[in-house]
Amino acid sequence: MRKISFWNDGKEYEVVCAVGAKYFRVLRKEYIDNNGVKHGEEYVGLDLKTPKVSGGLRGPAAKAERNRLTHFKMTYRKGTI
After folding, report:
1. 55 CB contacts (<8 Å, ≥6 apart)?
2. N or C: which end of the chain has fewer CB within 10 A?
3. How far apart are CA 48 and CA 60, in angstroms?
4. Tens-binned pLDDT, residue by residue, of the chain (81 aa)
5. Whose CA is closest to 23, among 6, 43, 51?
6. Rg of the Cα trace of the chain?
7. What is the distance between the alpha carbons of residues 40 and 21, in angstroms, rounded to a whole number?
8. Are 8 and 27 in contact (CB under 8 A)?
9. Distance CA 13, CA 58 (A)
10. Can you say how many angstroms the Cα of residue 13 is from the centroid of all Cα atoms in its chain?
């Protein structure tokens, strides 16, 4: 696992790369909001927002849709590395 950390709007994020699987995800680290409510770690989209999963999906279908919205394929071009 390789990680890149950055901050945006007072929240810490990590780009987590699974090099062997050729995908990456963006993880928002846990934080405490202005009201004192603690929020746990969560995978987000490229816009750094929680992905919206359709209300009609349940169980494995909802999980698959959430993974589809938070996993991003890494592409490699010959001679770029």
Report:
1. none
2. C
3. 24
4. 567 899 998 899 999 988 788 899 999 999 999 999 999 999 999 999 999 988 888 999 999 999 999 999 988 777 765
5. 43
6. 15
7. 25
8. no
9. 28
10. 9
Q: Which of 49, 52, 50, 43 is nearest to 72 (CA)?
A: 43
Would you say the C-alpha torsion 53, 4, 7, 47 has a positive or negative sign? Answer: negative
Q: Which long-range contacts (CB under 8 A, 24 or more apart) does 30-35 make?
A: none
Question: At 77, is the secondary structure helix, strand, or coil?
Answer: coil
Cβ-contact 2, 14 below 8 angstroms: no
Question: What letter represents residue 19's amino acid?
Answer: V
Tell me the H-state helices in the chain: 59-70
| Euclidean distance between CA atoms 71 and 15, whole angstroms | 11
DSSP state of 48: S
